[in-house]
Design goal:
single chain; about 160 residues; alpha+beta; Alpha-D-Glucose-1,6-Bisphosphate, Chain A, domain 4; 3 helices; 7 strands; START-like_dom_sf
């Protein structure tokens, strides 16, 4: 089965990175291909919470629903992304403390649909490139917000402590 794995060291603490993951309305800032957030359940990212998004490239768009399957606050988040008629995929994110920083582990694999029949390097490579772009965006946002909080006199964002 096709699996795409990405790793990224993010120069922010796990609680700071988790604050971004636990705000469903911010996913369009860092998830490559997301046009906009349609709805985010108020209890995101609790198990069963849904995030409805519009994804696309150019004029082609599709509405996607991500459902939280596993949530270990501050450490692990696993989503099932469904985009009919394209099927569904599992997206597993894990935050590993690395000194004062975060090692972000991301695994993606298809659950249903055409992706389950598409094996090999081209699909793995394309998904890995997309996911690498996504982690680069996430890292930039986390570092920017970390640096803003570290400035003397900067207002403290309490979301990172949640």
């Amino acid at each position: 089965m096709t699996v795409a794995r990405n790793r990224r060291l993010i120069l922010s603490s796990p609680p700071e990175v988790w604050a971004l993951l636990s705000d469903g309305h911010r996913y369009q800032e860092w998830v490559t291909g997301t046009r906009r957030i349609l709805t985010a359940d108020p209890h995101w990212p609790a198990v069963g919470a849904r995030l409805r998004v519009r994804v696309g490239l150019g004029p082609l768009t599709v509405d996607d629903t991500c459902v939280v399957r596993i949530c270990e606050p501050g450490r692990r988040l696993e989503l099932e992304a469904k985009a009919d008629p394209f099927g569904a995929a599992r997206i597993a994110m894990k935050l590993v403390p690395w000194g004062e920083h975060t090692l972000f582990l991301l695994d993606w694999h298809p659950l249903r649909g055409p992706g389950t029949r598409m094996h090999g390097l081209p699909v793995d490579y394309a998904v890995s490139v997309r996911n690498g772009m996504m982690l680069t965006k996430l890292a930039r946002i986390a570092v920017r917000e970390h640096e803003a909080r570290a400035r003397p006199g900067a207002p403290q964002d309490t979301r990172a402590a949640q």
